[in-house]
Amino acid sequence: MMIFTDLSRLEARSGSKMDGSAAGMAVGHNRLNGRFTVGNTEYRARQQRLAERVRQLTLDYDPSPSQLELLPIIARHLDDALRGRSAERRVRAGNAANRLLRLIPKRQRQEEPLITARELLERITKSDPPVA
After folding, report:
1. Domain segments of the chain: what residues?
2. pLDDT tens for residues 113-130?
3. What is the largest CA-CA distance in the chain?
4. DSSP of the chain
5. Nearest Cα to 49, choosing from 88, 86, 80?
6. 123 torsion bin: left (phi>0), alpha (psi -120 to 50), beta (else)
7. What is the pLDDT of residues 51-98, one digit of tens each?
């Protein structure tokens, strides 16, 4: 059994570093080279995550047609900010997403004004007349 004390030799021995899921540790990765195996669902899962994120961004923001093209890019940056392996990559992706989101105006939500206690009391008294 070999014990490596030098980290660079260990990394060279185990193959190249990959961003994203841990190579060899995740289901659907080949332990030797870190590539996806046949029948892997990681790619499909990422596509579904990105599609859901684009849908949520469309609901939260009011993009013009040209800004609508930026939403998939922003979704990828947000996904990288959540799942990136190195802190540098996560911060860089988060900053890029924030920079692009500042270009798109937020959707104005029409909120109903809150009902006052007096209005609630009037509604109750109108619907239930007092019994004499």
Report:
1. 13-101
2. 778 888 888 888 887 665
3. 94
4. ------HHHHHHHH----SSSPTTTSTTB-TTT-PBPTT--HHHHHHHHHHHHHHHHHHHB---HHHHTTHHHHHHHHHHHHH-SSHHHHHHHHHHHHHHHTTSPBPPP-PPPPPPHHHHHHHHHHHSPPP-
5. 80
6. alpha
7. 999 999 999 999 999 999 999 999 999 999 999 999 999 999 999 999
Which residue type is seen at 126?
Answer: K
CB 104 within 8 A of CB 67: yes
- What token pair was written down for 96? 């890029």
Beta bridge partners of 106: 61
Phi, psi of 36 (to 5 degrees): -65, 145
